Task: structure prediction
Amino acid sequence: MKGMVESMASAKEKVEEKKIQLMQLTKEFSQQYLNEEYDCVIEKLISKMARKREVPFVTGKIEIWAAAVIHALGTINFLFDKSSVPYVSVNEITQFFGTKQSTTTQKSKRIRDMFKISYFDSEFSTKTVDQHNPFHNLVTIDGLLVPKNMNLVLNEKVEVKEWELNVAQILGVKELKKGGKFNKSNLYELLKVTDESLKVYYSYLQQHLTFPFSVSIEEEVGPLEWVKYNVNCVRLEQEMEVDEFYGILLECTQESEKIIIPLADIDMDNDTVNSAIITLYQEWFWTYR
Result:
């Protein structure tokens, strides 16, 4: 009995020790790149992780968990949107903590899945993001939650476009027909981007994309300063496959380093073998996300 008590005490001390380390690392990052609003949600998330029956951050490299905490909260609070304040790139997070992008994003998704965290989360949104929460003033139309001022717009009848029919065929949506007209809200419900529809599209792309192929991507390295570089796309990402924010992911290499990039963000030349397939996916993702 005494040994069991001592073991429990030791485990509790280890959790507390790791929690302090995690708080310190994330605080250092926040002081350099973020603000007090992020300090609040970071502390709240780490404290909640520490209360889990099996505390995730007691195993593994603490720097990876720190990067994942920032990435998880940044994802739902639009930190990677260049129009947001503050704005931070994923590359800045991984460089600060000395972690790999693929490992960081996978751990981030694990945290978000663990606590079911998504956009405009009532518990982990910063005050600024919560003030712009569109879900505060919603109405239900055909089972779909939308802002009240979109009521008339979403009830408008629209004709289904050719590319939407092509997407419907990929997703197995049989309700859409050429020349048919649908309420915008109904059309959105049928074609919206979800984890399930992304996985169906992932299987389609797995069969139809030709690898490897090269693309150019741009990354912001400073205020109004961009660097463009080439990456070699070797396959669809095999472990995480899809992300609720970024969509379907690509596994690429850049100067022998493995990186993960969203398929929706790459620029394709129109005359390449994959261009039509990828352009169709991107139009669907950005329209129905």
About this structure: Residues 1-6 have pLDDT under 50 and may be disordered. The first strand starts at residue 138 and ends at 141. Residues 2-33 form the longest helix (32 residues).
